[in-house]
Amino acid sequence: MIPVQAPNHRLMDNSPVYISQPVLALAFIVAYLFSLLLDPRFIHIMGLVTGAGIVLFPLTYVLSSLMAVLYGRNYSIQIIMIACLINLSYVLLTMLVVQLPSPDFNTEYNTAFEKIYQFNLNVFITSTVCYFIAESLNSSLCAWIKCHIKKRAEIFYLLTILSVISLDTVLFIYFAYPHLTPTEMISMWIARWLVKSTVAIIYFIIIYRLYSVRTPIS
Predict the structure, then answer these.
(1) With a threshold of 0.70, does the pTM exceed it?
(2) Strand 42-45 vs strand 48-51: parallel, antiparallel, or unpaired?
């Protein structure tokens, strides 16, 4: 059974300092929203042409795992849902704004804005559903690991993050791009998973090693 609440942890050896819930929540929401805002800009990284959001999005998996470890599965999923609702509000508002009439001047800028923020409904729905499934699963598994695995738990946190990234990528490619052949899907999955996983490992090492999360001494 997945625990709904994991005990709080202190940060760093012999330190009374906690990573506060608001700080973690804000960091997660900002990372998620900024990754979406950056995604319209294409980049070429590790042989893959993709949206720039891929550089920041893996950070959300590391932060959601940390929220689950420090404050429990329920809290982590609540923040995941809040970020999802904020994104939905942003998309709906943007869709409304681009439908409003434009003035006679500055048409070039407005046209460019509308082209950037033309949302593909299928891709948006698929990415949102995959995001929620993957992040929730990541939080649930990390909370379970925290309560049941005492030695080298960080390794299992990382393996969970990499596995969930793989699942998220597979589901997204399959449902967002159904016109691709199986070979094209596999090729895209491998490329995107390698980039996301590499970035996630870097974030994981920085965050978990920097703070060295430990169980508080009773």
Answers:
(1) yes
(2) antiparallel
